[in-house]
Amino acid sequence: MKKRYTITLEDDDEVFRTKTVKELILENIPKGKTTISSKVAKSFKIGRRKALEYLTDMEDKGFLKSERGVIKYKSGAKARARIFKRI
User: Fold this and answer.
1) What is the pLDDT at residue 41?
2) For residues 74 and 12, what is the distance between their CA atoms, to the nearest angstrom?
3) SS3 helix, strand, coil % of the chain, rounded to 5?
4) What is the pLDDT of residues 24-35, one digit of tens each?
5) Strands of the sheet with 34-35, listed across from one edge
6) Of the candidates 49, 57, 48, which has an alpha carbon nearest to the alpha carbon of residue 23?
7) In the predicted model, is pLDDT for residue 20 greater than 90?
8) What whole-number distance in Å separates Cα of residue 82 and Cα of residue 68?
9) Domains with residue ranges and CATH for the chain
């Protein structure tokens, strides 16, 4: 006797499709606004280098553009960073 197999996602209650981190990053950066990798990393609970990798990949695909600049934190500390802008 054959068993019934569920092989489609629509019929399976245990498996759901979710968005990738890259898709979520793009959704959360409004067009014309800027961000840096550390803010993205903190928001999505990923490492800064992984966030920078995602942002660089999206820049290569034409979703973002970047420039190197100096940012100043509220504490007065300054740091060099790549500043990404959604286009």
Assistant:
1) 97
2) 49
3) 35, 25, 45
4) 999 999 999 999
5) 34-35, 78-86, 64-72
6) 57
7) yes
8) 4
9) 21-86 (1.10.10.10)
